[in-house]
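Page 47, continued from p. 46.
Same chain as before, 231 aa.
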Amino acid sequence: FFVETHDNYIKNYSLPSTMKMIFAAKNLTVSIESFNEALTNVKNNIQLIDHDHVDQNSETLSVYFASYTDFVDSIIKLNALKTIYEELSCLFDISLSESPIHLIKIESGSLWVKIAGCIKIILPLKELIRSFILYIFRNYTDEGKLLTLPKKMDVIERAIHLTEVLEKHGIDCSIPKENIEKSAIKVSEQLNYLIGGQPKIMLDGDELSLSKSRQDKFIEESKTLMIESKS
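Result:
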C-alpha cells in the first residue's frame, strides 16, 4: 500500500497525494514496530538448540507448510506455536523455565519448522493441530467457502476436542469450566493463525491436504477469515 501511494505521490505532487502518503507511512511505521515486537518476542521465547541435545523427556514436532510463506507470516506461525505451547503448559501446570520450547530447525520459502519441548505438552499439541486441520478441511466446501470458523465454544470443542485431549493426557477437566473455555478459545485462535493460507500441511511427515481443485480458493478464503478473526 505504501509503495503504491508513494508512486502516486511522485507522479502527482499535490496536497491530497501528500496526505495519503503521510497516512500510509504512519501505518507502515506501526506495522514495522508491531512486527519487530513480535519478532523479539519469538526470539526471546523460542530457544535454538541442536537436535542431538533433545533429552528423553522431550518430544519433537515437525510442521511443513507447502504453500509459500513470507517472513511476516512465518513469524506469525512461530508465535502461534509458542502461544499454544505456553497455554498448554499452564493447563498442565508445567514450568516454562524448566521445560521451554526449543527451535531445532527452520527453513523459509515453503516454511518448515521443527520444534522440541516437554513431551507432556508436545504430544497433546500434535493432536490439537491435527484435529483443527482436519476440521477446517472437512468443512471447506466445493464453492470455496468455509462452513464455519470456530468461535463458539461448542464449535471449538468439535474442532479441536480440547477436553478429550486434556483428559487423555491426565488433566482433570472438572476444574472450573471457564478456565477450559478461555484456553480453548485462545488455542483455536492461534491454530487459525498457524494453518491460515495453507491447503497442504505435513505434520511429522504425514500429509494433510485439500484436493488440488480447492487449494487456490482456500488460500484466498483463509486470508479473509484471518482478518475477520482479528476484528
